[in-house]
Amino acid sequence: MKITKNIDKLGTVGLFITAIFSPCCFPLFAFVVSALGLGSFELFGGWTMWVFQAMVIVAIFGLYISYRKHKCLYPLLTAIPSGLLIFYGYHLNDSDYWTYFLYTGMFGLLAATIWNYRRNKIHGKCDTCVIYEGKEVELKSIITCPKCGHKKEELMPTDACQYFYECEKCKTVIKPKQGDCCVYCSYGSVNCPPIQAGNNCC
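RESULT FIELD:
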């Protein structure tokens, strides 16, 4: 599993671990540390809030990567205000209630991460999928040479049909079968993006 799929989870889990094991800064979680018999244990000492803020940035960055890949904006729209609440509470709010801004932001990031996870689970995890004309399509296809049987994994273009393909083994230039729009529809393991999206051809 690639780390880019889990950056948001690493950030969110990291900020909660930092908070739970820093009861002086986050008294809401003091009972957890007490239950573990760690007393006034501080995981990162004087670096606690810096690490905490870094984890917030990591979580939002991970959700941004997910948005760029899957075009699901709602988790990111939840995460950004949550992150701003955290930074506002810590840097700009001088009242006795500044920690409430942090807690609200933390649980907002948790909700965004869970939302993003559920969205990925529902729609599948695909490293080479993109949104094409409003639908998620797979770009990776294994093309098989009809002459020598050589197989090679290729990424299909989304802006044009590939009518010719040269086999890297036997150097045969293959063309689509009659009625097919491209070589991937004829010899690939996955049809081209327009066909996947429900169109007739490229």
